[in-house]
Amino acid sequence: MKNLRLEAALIMVGLILLGFFIQQGLNTFAAKDRTVTVKGLAEMEVQADKVIWPLVYKNLGDNLNTLYDDIKQNNQTIVQFLKEQGIDEKEISVNAPEIIDMKAERYSGDRNSSYRYNVTSVITVNSNKTDLVRKLISEQGELLKRGVAITSGDYRYNVVYEYTSLNKIKPQMIEEATRNAREAAEKFAKDSESRLGKIKKASQGQFSISDRDPNTPYIKNVRVVTTIDYLLEE
Q: Which PANTHER family does the entry mention (predicted)?
């Protein structure tokens, strides 16, 4: 009888200890899964380091030979002007002219035009000298004195500014975004009466580059958002 009681007591103690260890294991397992997910934002304004500037002009006429001579002369005038102002020849591209025969154009609403041919010519500047090109854009009226009228308003030929040096600022921006994310995580841990642990998982996120505003497309806003999972400790 005593043996049965002893065995029962031992079984009871064993069950209690088993329950205790299971509970401790569950608590430890739950603690391992306690995380907080935060996002860190970093933004920076930079100036564009590349510009594509299309100079567009038009010629009207009836004689293709005469138009060819006029276009050739206009191209030379524009290229000469650009070189004088500091643009390298390798930064200048002369495109083939686009010719519309007004008499043959099926959908033209200007069949009664006094000129048969409408020619659009484009010379493109592709340069890293963004400040210089911006200055020339504001002074392109100088070409009027040389007999060339630069046109605008064609959506196909807009000035484009780009920022190509993202790799130079990536480390700095990622560091800032990570720091901002950690600050948010530390605030959360403090409010939840926990301590912030190690990083469980991190995602750098994608960089985006956009115009700061419509009026200054040569100033870019670079943005990155990092997502980080931190462990929380008691």
A: SLR1258 PROTEIN
Q: Are 34 and 93 spatial neighbours (Cβ–Cβ below 8 Å)? A: no
> What is the model's pTM?
0.78
Q: What is the DSSP string of 129-165?
A: -HHHHHHHHHTTTHHHHTT---B---TTS--EEE---
- Contact between 218 and 26 (Cβ < 8 Å): no
Phi, psi of 86, rounded to the nearest 5 degrees? 110, 5
For 66-90, write each residue's pLDDT tens digit: 999 999 999 999 999 999 999 999 9
Query: Can you tell me which residue has the tokens 């004195």?
Result: 145
Q: Are 106 and 56 in contact (CB under 8 A)?
A: no
Determine the pLDDT at residue 161: 97
CB environment 133-149: b (16+ within 10 A), e (fewer):
bbebeeebeebeeeebe
Q: Provide φ and ψ at 43, rounded to 5°.
A: -135, 150
Q: Please give the pLDDT value at position 21.
A: 43
Q: Is 121 exposed, middle or buried (0-12, 13-18, 19+ CB in 10 A)?
A: buried
pLDDT in tens, 160-210: 999 999 999 999 999 999 999 999 989 888 888 888 888 888 888 889 999
- Per-residue confidence (pLDDT) for residue 106, from 0 to 100: 57
Q: State how far the alpha carbon of 166 is from the alpha carbons of 37, 109, 171, 208, 223, in Å.
A: 27, 47, 10, 10, 11
Distance CA 102, CA 90 (A): 35
